[in-house]
Hints:
Layout: H1 7-16, H2 26-29, H3 39-50, H4 63-94, H5 106-115, H6 122-155, H7 157-162, H8 173-181, H9 191-197, E1 202-204, E2 213-216, H10 222-236, H11 245-254, H12 259-279
Helix pairs in contact: 4-6, 4-8, 5-6, 8-10, 9-12, 10-12
Amino acid sequence: MEACGTAHDSARTLAATGHEVRLIQPWYVKAYVKRGKSDALDTEAICEAVQRPTMRFAPTKTVEQKGMLMARRARSLLVRQRSMAANAQRGHLGEFGLVYPRLAHLATLGEQALADRDALPPYARTPLETLIRQIVALTGEITTLDQQIAIWHAQSEASRRLAAIPGIGIGIVTATAIAASVSDPDQFISGRQIAAWLGLTPQEHSTGGKTRLGGMSKRGDCYLRRLLVIGATAVMRHTKEKTTPMANWIRKLMEKKPFRVVSVALANKLARIAWVVLTEEGSLSI
Length: 286
């Protein structure tokens, strides 16, 4: 089956009846599709692709993993919506001379603007109240999801072990996301494969015996990739006072590479470390 929408639910249902289910990424099937587009041609392409000896398959996620991923995606959506409302409120208030340098506590500042009768005209008060209510409501919903994610993290052994990795355990956000996304870490032969799966490896354009490496491929889960890069950036900002092997490696690399290039390289390393933690038991020493 193609690993598309609702594929994991169908795979679990078929597996419960005794079938062996294999999920294939759609871009692997596309190479075997002939001219035109139909269900019959897609089925023929899947049948051809599944017989390839080097074909890679996606493991089926459990109900618990899909539930956690849904909570993570919903939280990400609510955070974006809150940022949109806060930016809109900040921009509108700026038109009336009420300029705030930061978005933190913007709802409280908006309420203070409403309390000042001379600060805003009557027609501006209703939309401002609407934006304030939306920001407060979204903040409450985000807090509720954070509590559910924290409960899942406490019950997940894999997530707790990942939280010990610098740059991944910050706020348990990345740890829970990786634990819920990687169903079977043994599907990856090495840490490099999971880094490539997340699009953190260079895009290769080799021909004629000449190896050419470009920027990172940016394939795979962009949400996980973004979290790893953000975590790597946070680690890089606190390496001056540390003498760990990772801190020494970061400082040495920053002497000859730009900051963002080093952050992606560190995100690649964090992904590899996460694979080791998921596949091997024991204490972590970085």
